[in-house]
User: Fold these one by one.
Assistant:
Number 1:
Amino acid sequence: MLIHEKPALKAEARNLNFYYGEAQALKNINMPIYDKKVTALIGPSGCGKSTYLRSFNRMHDLYPGNRYEGEIRFFPDNTNLLSSDVDPIEVRMRLGMVFQKPNPFPKTIYENVAFGLRVRGETNKRVLDDKVEQALRGGAIWDEVKDRLQDLAPNLSGGQQQRLCIARALATDPELLLFDEPTSALDPIATGAIEELIHELKKRVTILIVTHNMQQAARVSDYTAYMYLGEMVEFGKTDEIFIKPQDKRTEDYITGRMG
Amino acid sequence: MNESLHLSSQFDEDLGGLRTHVLQMGGLVETQVSAAIEAYSSGEVGSVKHIVETDRKVNDLEKAIDDDCAHLIAKRQPAASDLRLVFGITKIVTDLERAGDEAKKIAKGVRRIYEAGQMPSQYGIGVRHIAEAALGMLHNALDAFARLDPQLAEHVIRADADVDTEFKSIMRQLITHMMEDPRTITTSIDIIWIARAVERIGDHAKNIAEHVVFIVEGRDIRHPPKESKA
């Protein structure tokens, strides 16, 4: 802790506001996302964590009346992800997302992972096979499914489905992975496997994770942001936030003194 | 320090219970130390037995509190100020238990001296003085814990330097005695042990005060680098 070297930035929110119609859901968020680190977003329900997470891949564009202000800068090219000149499809190509409930396509295991590659125009069978295997290995599920790649994905267990979804997200080599409560529907063993996987993944990809499980945030993340009522109350190293938070509201939340 | 209530009232009760037990244990150790000092001055060696018996209670409390802390960590996964409190308490009880052991050493040393027909007061008066200073430090350190008062804790930490200085001066005095009259060596050595135990009680009080600062402010102020030492 004596050395305070700041890692490189992968992304940065600058004066970010977001409105669902009239209702303001994010209030002037400023926050760095460090490269190849895990950043956890914690806070009570409705505090804006998921809204913030979904701003990165422009998911809010799908509904009319939603409006962004400010910027999310994406590095190294310093693109503003929210700029109207930037095609949301292009943005999503560079990001991967995993949701609360595993949502495999009603296709085979193989096709779930190959899908994104095919969308990108990859047709070479050998390349597809290779990339599918790599992604499944990256998702720590290869050994369990290598002999049944043609089985339907929805027949896997919940924990396996979730790792398949992570593998699917990895197949297109994303720069930033967005996890929205990825283990809230899983048992402790499957949760442990996903957390272990997150540790492995951060060697090559930046991760932003929303979690309701504070112990999980403490275990998996390098940085933690506490959000409350659409504001980012505190951002800091996870080690410091969980031992000595600076803000009373963060303290109250992580010690279980508020709902 | 965060004084607002948890959503779980059981958690508040558990934490409150822990603090009460630590203060109980602290009270016992304080009694041990003050009884040992009293015995040193008065020669009333009857209390020695009582001091030794109290030590058993102190040891039992140490184990019970450690056990409660382990259960609380397993059940509640405390974080931030709660974590610092539980962590600090496990350290405080170690220092308290050791301070109790030192009191026991003082009491036994006093008994040896009086049973040999000697009077410690013949050997200079410094011991009683630092013993009272050390007892005061212990008392203040426990007060600082009870009130979670970092200023009082810092005061205790500063007081330790005086006790250390006085201990060295007592050592010099006794060495002079021993050189001048070898017949005093046996008793002098007992008094050295006693003074040493007193000085250690001061150290434990200082440690407790350091844990209090950590609990309240999250700063680990143990072992400051040389240049910042006053």
Number 2:
Amino acid sequence: MIAVETDNLSLKLGDKTVLDDITCQVHEGEFVAVLGPNGAGKSVFLKLLLGILTPSSGHIRIWGRAPRDLPSEWIGYVPQAKTHDRSFPAIAVELVITGLYQRWRGWASAPEKLAARGALAQLGAEHLADRPIGILSGGELQRVYLARSLVRKPRLILLDEPVTGVDSVGENDFYEVLEAYRRQSGATIIMVTHDWEVASRHACHVLVLNRNLIGFGAPAEVLCSDCLKRAYGVSSTTHLSSCPRPEAHQH
Amino acid sequence: MGEILNLPFMQRALLAGVMIGFLASYLGVFVVQRGMGFLGNGLAHAAFGGVALGLLLGREPLIIAVPFTVAIALAITWVRQRTALTSDTVIGVFFAAAMALGVIFLSLKREYSADAFAYLFGSILSVTVTDIWVTGLVMIFTLACQPLWGRWAYATFDRDLALTDRVPVLLDDYILTVLIAVTVVVAVKVVGIVLISAFLVVPAAAARLMARRFAVMTVLSVIIGVASVIIGLWLSYQLDLPSGATIVLLQTAIFLTSLAVGRLAGAGSPGR
């Protein structure tokens, strides 16, 4: 069953073409990594899927519906930690409860608190429940965001560079939980990342963008030098040769 | 305290002041957390344009100032959402224009207007029964919008998360801006144009230093806002000082105390 489908998807902001003619299909239960250089339109692509932005032309269908017609609890969104406002007074469990209540809750009910603490416990983060989110490390914060996303039992999880600034142990734990949820629930995952190794290790498919579609397919096909040179440009040839070969990470 | 409650003008001032203290400190938590402190200042100066127009037309200034300031507030929000300009820049442009209009309107009146100065610095004696009714209506409307607190708070925390959960963020922004604008206008008589932004910012900032949850910050801000009006009015009467300035200095003292207590308790540092 097709979960996410884009058809000639384009977005212009003023005179600038941010995304041009993106066509792809993601099947239910797949893990898709979205790669591309800075400014390639990866986060914009996610925001189009979330219904935050409206395409200039083309279509998006998620289980046959336009993004804004989907029940919001079907989607779990994990934003970039660096965009997080650390000055906002909140404790971790309150952030997780927004995943259930879809509003900021002043005084949460006991069942809501219990469910939120359960989601944190699932990620080994129950001890963070009463901590102010402003003092959490990048890795801790991303676990809280993932708990917020999973507590609503989403059918589609969209992640925007979720492990940037997280140490390798935290990163492995993060992907383990994500993979376990996918196996158990059959959820579809679309994740923006800069990490080719993670893409080749976890993703069923890789979508390489640089405003237009450079490649979409299995990691072994798409993470080739030619595709990546087209995405990252000639100047990055040196960088490409120093990157681990995707084939080395196929299991 | 009992003595001053027998004076009709103090009764009006206290009633209006408590309602304004509530409104400004309740809405102020969003002003502070959204980094819109300059908005209160800008809207107060926009209100001056409206007041001056009312004086020029020989009408009740508040009746003209409310729609005038709301129009400026909506224009600020509209331009901010449709351009890459920062909030401060947009507010700066509109507040200067409204202030300039106010100066032109007053100059066209061609006679000295003591009323204009009452609005600039606030005058407890100038609070009328009409002002109480208008403030009461704003209070009722704000309380009716209380269910929006969770949506405003969510969008304040993270606009994209709120949009993802289908919160009508743009509509909510307009409602919040209109409420702030109307609160600023009705507060002008008691506090004065020069000091009203403090009513929006200082109680919420003091509460932020003491609270680690947004709901608690909101409650503390309202308590500080209302209590500072009651105590400040009493102090201003006893010490024969201007009411608006006394209240604002009291709020500042509470802020500084929160800062000191917060530092001692370890709260109030970034993220706490």
Number 3:
Amino acid sequence: MTTTQIEINHVSKVFKGSEQDVVALKDIHLSIPEGQFVCLLGPSGCGKSTLLNAIAGFSLPSTGDVIVSGKKVEEPGPDRGMVFQEYALFPWMTVEDNITFGLKIKNEDPVKVKKKLDELLTTLKLTDFRKRFPKDLSGGMRQRVAIARVLALDPPIMLMDEPFGALDALTRRSLQDELLKIWSELKKTVVFVTHSIEESIYLADRIVVMSYRPGTVKKDIMVSIPRPRNPADPDFNNLKRELSEMVMAEQNRFEMAQMRGSTGD
Amino acid sequence: MNDKGFLSKLKGVWVPALVLIVWEGVVRAGWVNPQVLPAPSAVLIRWYHYILPVEAYDPEMGSWLAWAFSGELIRDLFESFYRVLMGCLIGGGLALPLGLLMGASRTIYDYMNPLIQVLRPIPPIAYIPLAILWFGLGNPPAIFLIALGAFFPVLMNTIVGVRAVDSIYIRAGKNLGAGSFLMFRKIIVPASMPYILSGVRIGIGTGFICMIVAEMIAVNNGLGYRILEAREYFWSDKIIAGMFSIGLLGLAIDTVVSRLNNYLLRWHRGLE
């Protein structure tokens, strides 16, 4: 029996608007066990990033609460490492300095920092780029650094906000494979936001499909296809078809709302 | 280097060479009074004497090196440079922390901004009477004026720079466990560095102008003083030699600052 790592208790989030309030999340109730790989799937504006930010502690829920490892989330913290879509690497630091940032500000023993750094550089195939600045790296490389920076602090939870959204298909696939490898070795709990159906099926143990405004849990399904998963596999395709219908229905609602001039995000 | 590269490098030489030749010709032909506009050759000779030590070398006076640098121009350059350096260090040194605080805290900004807005439009030159009244003559009023000139550009750019820091870096920093002091030192300051450094560059430029003016009024050495002094003797060749010296000092300072800039911002996009 695995223990619950993230408990989302009846979370709602309302953004105050000038004309009308936007209900981004409405009564979300989820329990994520330790070591699970969860994908939050849905179209733009379904509140998946809002939910991730609530877990990360960047933006607290209007009602309800998020309990992580038995403690209520009130602020961001290194136990919930976040990988952003825009990489968010510190451009003035080299790859090495970015990765060791979290350890150095904790005043870790330099010998330990060095050891951890070398380990991460090897795992993420960044050794040749250790002295480079982020501007000299490709998108895929930057995201590797962002993942290494989070892993350096060895957090039990990794939060990923469409981390591979800006990458080309091939780079994306290889990073997905690497993430799965890291996840299976290090047994992290992963909450991964995406709007790619295929990506969610390829990666997740469990897919939470979210609805467009108000953001609710439309469907919560476990993916039982054995890994490594093959996108050409019939089971994969059946699930993809099923999810497509659900997500497209939400996408249509999103587009209708856009046409009516409601503000999207 | 191939011939083509060499020739294209020479492009920049033609126009100044032509100007010098025409200038020299006009003076030699007697079309202008050399007292009003001396020939470039006369300026060059004057410049050479301006650089040379005033007295012949005497081993009893001290080291050869000290003698070699005892020329009037060398001393003037040193004095002027010293004033700009001190002024900019003081002005920038005060503006930077204040700018960081004002950029980061709305409250501090609201307290300080009205005062800054009232003082900022007053040209540093307008402080001359007060500077002399407060500090007398000599380096202190000069350095005060230069510091004033450097202060506002650094301040304004630092405020803008801090405000322009992308919130994603702040979020990433918080996520990695940075507290407010570390956030400031490791994230906000380096992230606003492009703005701060451009403020520093503008500040040094303003400080440099203030230096020349201050030297014309408050002290009796330095490049600004020297060209004013030369006017009293109708040494127009020395005035022009002094002006070119001022230009070269400015160029040298700007080159060093620009190199430093490029080094400190080597991480920044679009600077290669």
Number 4:
Amino acid sequence: MNRHLISAADLSLDDAVAILDTAEELARLAQRPIPKLPTLRGRTVVNLFYEDSTRTRISFEAAAKRLSADVINFSAKGSSVAKGESLKDTALTLQAMGADAVVIRHGASGAPYRLAGWVRGSVINAGDGTHEHPTQALLDAFTMRRRLGRLAGLRVTIVGDILHSRVARSNVWLLRTLGARVTLVAPPTLLPVAVGGWPCSVSYDFSTVLPDSDVVMMLRVQRERMSDAYFPSVREYSRRYGLDGDRMALLADHAIVMHPGPMNRGVEIAAEVADSPRSTIVEQVTNGVSVRMAVLYLLLGGSREPGDAPPAAAGLAAAGSGVAGSGVAGSGETL
Amino acid sequence: MIAGGHTQDRGRWLIRDARPLGGPPADILIDGTTIAAVVPSGEGGADLATGGGQLSVLDAGGLIALPGLVDLHTHLREPGREDAETVASGTAAAALGGYTAVHAMANTEPAADTAGVVEQVWRLGRQAGHCDVRPVGAVTAGLGGSQLAELGAMADSAAGVRVFSDDGRCVADATLMRRALEYVKAFDGVIAQHAQEPRLTSGAQVNEGEVSARLGLTGWPAVAEEAIVARDCLLAAHVGSAVHVCHVSTAGTVEIIRWAKSKGWQVTAEVTPHHLLLTDDLAAGYDPVFKVNPPLRTAADVAALRAGLADGTIDCVATDHAPHPAEAKETEWSQAAFGMTGLETALRVVHEAMVNTGLLDWSAVADRMSVRPAAIGRIGALATGLGDLRHGCPVAPGSSATLVLYDPEPITPVDPAGHASRSRNTPFAGMKLPGQVVATFLRGRPTVLGGRLAR
């Protein structure tokens, strides 16, 4: 495993499977009365959020705290960032404070790469511009595997604003690694012109791909794209690329519907679909904590020598039992 | 390397065993501001030097002698951004790169859109003395793109402006571009266009293609350059004027210019050293030292640019030397400034990209980096009324003694810390490149000797 998690494309199949297996063990742990491990006690995890994203920040915060890490939330609002401090100076400050990991959400693509050049700790990308959001893709894969029992050969259809979606990019690279078959569906204006080089297929016709989909992942469409002439109107977008009850009926019985949130009900997804049993939207949130725990555990808790194999999930299970048995080391802290 | 007298001022110089344009070795005698004699080595060149006053002798065994290089596209940043570069530091960098004339772009603060500002830049260049500074005048007032600047006043000023450009911004309005092209015919001017259709490049960061798609950076499509170049070639033809295309970066633009030249239209073009050597995949690490406008393109574009420069479709190499302070680059990609320094590496990059590939010989390098850019800047060998202020002249008796001696042998990594430019944003840092500028002469006076500034 690399020291950082910035792009899903950097994960080998072994890395990805190790994260998913570890997350599975940690999810089981969450069922216990005191779902907390001492693994990262004394380690500091900084949540460095330059964009508002309450759900992602809380998910990382919960994950770090369940591993007993100290968590510092650094929001761009009300901080020195508002006074015009550069990312580099912020990074040097965090470095001086001894951050073991920095979870960064930033509006500029590639900002985590820059950060990784300026801090010694691990950098975890919690979404950078229109580039990537690797833990979202990992939690999506985790959710698919839980619901459908496998990833290899799974037919996954991702629908919406691919051009601007960090979720779509991370999913395309990760699902390729994990052996799933991805189809992107979008109006041609919302696909990169060079999408032909991506390891997936592309369709402009949503309805025709639905019967052959095991997973349909709907992406949020931003209303401001309309003013940039990416599509004529929200209504037309919704008619051609939204998932309503009629389209959902085209799906096979086992197929699931995913959405990374936040949803625009009535635009890309109808309420009856979002609230149907096929929907995994709430599970995705739950799974996000387990997956982010696994990422923190493997980046910070295991061997710190680069190039070492990640600890096997079985080993983690043993460690987890030991912790639970040793009684609640962290029980004084609230979760 | 220097024997004899230590006089570094104008006087008499005997350069022994230099290879003019890479050809057979010759002795070059400089007397005052002009070349007095060029004699094949061993045929008595030294005898020419007998008599007269004090003589400095430079043993140039094996060095290539080229006419002093001329840059059509230099950002000297003064006035306004003296933290990035000054006329003095930028022209020192130019001399060290083998340049004897640079065209200082107009996007200063304030913009060079009046006779006063261009004369200031011109005067600062004279004071620094490292090379000739030819100010470029803005096409539109304040580079605003809406109203013509006083082009005639700048042309008539002491700076004698002939090249006009809003570089950094495109003159996007077709009517305004037409008028500018027409207007400068009155004083043999040329409009140098930064070809970038603004609506197609809103927020653009990198070449639109596989790399932009993967990195999630807003794409800068080739068509945004090509559409403007095509339009401007047609406009120049329609009004019978001269357009110069700045920093050609795409294969499609090369095709359009080739077609326009085949019609006999007055279209010229330049390519930067970085577009001849680097490709867009360097953005993968999001290090903004590789962020430039127009952006680095694909390997296919690089091949087409090299071929276009080799066959003369692209007239010349121009650096687009764009210094920036460290903080403008030590930031997120999308927030970083566009631009790269280039004066001190240009000849070495051209050596690597064009000579070592067999596409150009040294005679052609002299043509693309001195003769043709001087002609486009209206300071070439055929320019009238300039006397020995002309550049790009043959290395021959009677020419202005404005030349560069270049050692093609060493291969060394580029070290930005050693650069004379105030800025360090070179994309070639650490890259092993051939060659070394050993000496630069401006009208008989050495500006660089032994690879160092001579004053």
